[in-house]
Amino acid sequence: MLTFVLVILSVVAYGDFINGGTPKNIPKSFDCATRKAAWEFGKVLMPRHGDFKTLFDALQLENGCGLTPPTKTDSWTPPKYSTPTTGILVYVDVNHGSDSNPGTKDKPLKTIASAVQLTHNHNPATILLRAGKYFIDMIELTQRNSGLTIQNFEGERVIVSGGVPLSINRTVWKPYKIDIGWKEYEGYNNIYGRVPGPGQDGPGIKFLGNFDSFDECAAEATKVVSSKGPFDSLTYHEPAFTGQWAKGCYGGTNGFWAPQAEASVMSARNLTQNTWVADLSKHGISHMLGLRLNGNRAIRAKYPDGNPELSGEWFVSDDPGMGNGQYVKGWVTGGTKWVKPARKPDATELVFSGDDWPNVNWPMTQEGGSKWTGEGDWGVFNLGMGGYCNDLNPPTGYWCSMHPPRGQCFDNKTMTSRGCTQTHMSPDGIYYGGLLPHAVNYSDPRGAVVHSWRGGGRWFTQQCLVSSMDSKEEILHFDTKIGCNQGGEGEVSASQWWIENVKEECDSPNEWFFDEHELSLYYTFHGTDPPTGNENFVVTKTEVLFNVTGSQKNPVRDVTIRGLELRDTAYTYLGTTKASIHGMPSGGDWALQRSGAVLFEGTERSMVDGCWLNRIDGNGIFISNYNRNVTLSNNDFTWIGDSAMAAWGSTSGCMNANCSVRIPYGSGPDGRSGNQPRGTRVVGNMVREIGIWQKQSSMWFQAVTAQTYLAKNVHFNGPRAGLNFNDGFGGGDIIEANLITNCVRESGDHGPWNSWDRLPYITNIGMVRDKNSPTGHKPADGPSVIPTFRQIRKNFIMSVYSSQEAIDTDDGSSYYHTYNNFFLYASGGLKSDFGGQWNHHYNNVYGYVLRSCFGVGNNLAFYNNTCATFKGGYKSDCVGHLMTVKGNHIYSQDGTMSVCGTTLKKWVEEGHDPGTTIAKWPTDDELIKIGMAAIGSLP
Predict the structure, then answer these.
(1) What's the predicted TM-score (pTM) here?
(2) DSSP states of 585-618 as a string?
(3) Torsional sign, CA 593, 599, 602, 606
(4) Which string of DSSP letters, residue by residue, matches 12-25?
(5) % helix, strand, coil for the chain, step of 5
(6) Backbone angles phi, psi at 57, to 5 degrees
(7) How far apart are CA 374 and CA 380, in angstroms?
(8) What is the DSSP letter of 900?
């Protein structure tokens, strides 16, 4: 057991947070004190990271709070494992070995693939990798590899890469375009919508004055004006421009460059382009999905310019917690028109209920009443097959239905939407006119990819492959069979976007483009110097590094991968290979590909321990279908393209009890076959900087998965929820002692934890209603759609940025016990909407909840909690139905709270809400101590 001891240091002086994400009206002193407490908690959970400078920096404790930063940046250190003394040992040395050797320590092999072959049918067996960098194709491990461990030898640094090294002699490089200075764009406005009014400043924009010409504007910008410049862009409204904007000169300071067409306006960009081209026809490379330079991601030529890895830093909200905001760089942020999707045949509607499963405990009504059938583990199972989902694998899903219960906002006849949830679909193209200044010069945009946020809500990003360009109508058409399917629910439009893989956009440092016709690499180098020929390039190639695959009948057992740095896998977001085609896991909002740098399917007791997954372009680790007792422990994940870890199981194709209605996919309601991940342990992992490509990504995601144990993980800096549970399948999960912060940095309508529960699933590990039980339920003797309660406890969650709730139990999410947690900020506490039920919050501490300590629903409980909130932030027990509210300690700024037509104090005195108290906000130290005491000792 670990006991957390809080040491509170007074913060004497501090500056300003840079997009810190704290909601408005939070006392700065409390914000700094809690951020420091989160850092201290993270160090206790993650001692291998020492002073944990990356977490310190993410919490902005230096610039925002004036604390002295750690002197040493924490980094992954290869763990030192002992060399086994039993079983077969095979040594591999990429630098000094040979595959003709016997694999002994003195005569090691050269490749991992040869070592795997040598260990077939030996149990146990250990492959010991000596220091070096191993470039591999996919390593397949099957049942004959049961009992195999692959590890680094005695703490040596081992890198396993899915790339291909690329060395280009400096004589091969030829200058392509060298352009230095201001480049002017007549008829384009780079401050459109970004300045509140004429003569005013805006985010990253300074008003320089009114001038009679652009030359005078430029002359002013080149002066040394320490209080305003230096400037990377200019926008000048010519004298002919109507209104008060005329003659106005504005300088940009934050690198934003995505001008929109507007007459009588000129914008200019301060450009240093140093682009060279190399003929690679003799290198055996026919295409490039990704490129690394000296271990870092190079940027595939894109517009607007900007490193996608920094996207989270560039999304700025003027009111964190409310889900609004905008990018200040790297994205086209407005004024875009999209091509509506073509009308497709309707999906086959599959709607079944408890009547079709007579021997299953399947309630068809909810206590207290609810119209949201199928949500909260009761009512119909609603599925669509085919139609708009023919591009998915399998072509089934909740959002494939033409009329999903939660999708009542779309007219299939007119193809119009009111901006809310609807059938799975996406735009067929984009009108680029006035938004892509270089489009007139595009030689061949086929193969370009448009990355965009879903329209009607920043919930996921979609990547659409450009198939053709209509210069007359100024349209980029999207391929209708590849890409654009990375989300669950659909929309006919999109919102913020950027385009990549266009030669003419290769104009900014670290951008590259590979011309598959010329077999030539274009690269824009920093500065003005030519390439040296010593550049260390790696071309990404392999999607899956280790594929551990058996079956439920014949599983692979006891495979362990540990102590390795895994990196440089290829992106999978377009689904151009069978393994990476997206599917709809269950009733939540996600679509997902069954792929990862490490892939487990049909395994028992598999493990990944002590590894560093770095700059993976797809998912990190994926657990697919039947798996039992997988352990993911003590790993670091950084700069991941999609999710760090994910699990997705399957069900039966039977739609009714006698299987007289059956579909050829594992998407039905019956999960009793056990073809799912169960008993997974996710312990002691550090995850940061994820969702580089797909923003609907998490530290941990699960669908049709049960009995997961998530403990003592640290996650920060993610675009969406840190933990995401896509359904209520089975239950029995425990989530405890995790630190989660800096989530929902780029999206909205979410929380650090998010769950959905729109489809009832049958398992043999569920519950039945029992009014005599303390929990209102007891274990079921047979099949039931009611899951076992999930436990969320002892977690420290800071809900900054656009977090709605720390625990966002969304859309019917039910059967959660949430207790002994320290929750900071967010707009709400307990949430239970759209048919949610049986969510109990107790013994938690909520630090400055903006809107309300709890919401309403059926069979909810909110008791023995401490909640510091604002006026009107506590509802007491006069609202809701079938709710338990009592014994809470409520704090407001003035020590009063209006509830139920009177004051809370009087309401309690009259015999309501027994044991609840009201007082003024406690001091910062007092509230933090109460919060940490709620967490108590750690497991």
Answers:
(1) 0.96
(2) -SSSSB-EES--SEEEEEEES-EEES-EEES-SS
(3) negative
(4) ------SS--PPTT
(5) 10, 35, 55
(6) -70, -40
(7) 5
(8) T
Task: Say which amino acid occupies 733.
Answer: D
Helix or strand run (H / E) with residue 255: none
DSSP string covering 474-490:
TEEEEEEEEES--BSS-
Q: What is residue 412's predicted lDDT score, i.e. its pLDDT?
A: 60
Residue with tokens 């002017």: 184
CA dihedral over 750, 751, 753, 758, signed as positive or negative: negative
pLDDT of residue 406: 81
Residue 517, judged by CB atoms within 10 A of its CB (0-12, 13-18, 19+), counts as exposed
Torsions phi, psi for 420 (to 5 deg): -125, -165
pLDDT of residue 10: 36
CA 924/CA 162 separation, integer angstroms: 49
Q: What is the pLDDT of residue 577?
A: 85
Q: How far is CA 452 from CA 6, 449, 873, in A?
A: 43, 10, 36
Are 146 and 124 contacting, i.e. CB atoms less than 8 angstroms apart? Answer: no
SS3 of residue 160 by DSSP: strand
Q: Is 504 left (phi over 0), alpha (psi -120 to 50) or beta?
A: alpha
Q: What is the pLDDT at residue 875?
A: 93
Whole-number Å distance between alpha carbons of 491 and 410: 9
* Residues in the chain, total: 939
Q: How far is CA 424 from CA 373, 415, 479, 483, 899, in A?
A: 20, 12, 16, 13, 42
| Residue-wise pLDDT tens digits, 586-633 | 999 999 999 999 999 999 999 999 999 999 999 999 999 999 999 999
Calculate the CA 910 to chain-centre distance. 48
CA angle 168–137–610, rounded 5-degree value: 100
Specify whether the CB–CB gap between 788 and 813 falls below 8 A.
no
Which helix (H) or strand (E) segment holds residue 495: the answer is strand 494-500
In whole angstroms, what is the distance from residue 797 CA to residue 934 CA?
Answer: 13
Burial zone of 346 (CB within 10 Å; 0-12 exposed, 13-18 middle, 19+ buried):
middle
Q: Which CATH number fits domain 88-161: 3.30.70.270, 1.10.3720.10, 3.40.50.920, 2.160.20.130?
A: 2.160.20.130
Q: Where are the domains of the chain?
A: 1-75, 88-161
Closest CA to 562 of 621, 615, 631, 610: 610
pLDDT confidence of residue 785: 98
Give the number of other Cβ atoms within 10 Å of residue 591's Cβ. 25
Structural element, H or E, at residue 176 = strand 173-189
DSSP assigned state of 750: B
pLDDT value at residue 872: 86
Q: Which two tokens stand for residue 110?
A: 């050269």
Specify the pLDDT at position 201.
94
Return the SS3 of 788. strand
How many angstroms separate the first and last alpha carbons of the chain?
A: 5
Residue 934, number of CB atoms within 10 A of its CB: 21
Q: What pLDDT does 836 receive?
A: 94
Beta pairing class for 582-583 and 621-628: unpaired
Q: CA 425 → CA 388, 586, 748, 770, distances in Å?
A: 6, 17, 20, 42
Contact 454, 460 (CB under 8 A): yes
- Cα angle: 709, vertex 711, 715; to 5 degrees: 120
CA distances from 57 to 35, 718, 739, 742 (A): 11, 15, 15, 11
Question: Rounded to whole angstroms, how far apart are CA atoms 5 and 677?
Answer: 36
Q: What is the CA radius of gyration of the chain?
A: 28
DSSP category for residue 47 = G
Is 578 exposed, middle or buried, given 0-12, 13-18 or 19+ CB atoms closer than 10 A?
exposed
**Which portions of the chain are predicted below pLDDT 70?**
1-15, 224-227, 320-323, 407-421
Pairing of strands 709-711, 677-678: unpaired
Task: Identify the pLDDT of residue 749.
Answer: 85
Per the rule left: phi > 0, alpha: psi between -120 and 50, beta: everything else, 243 is left
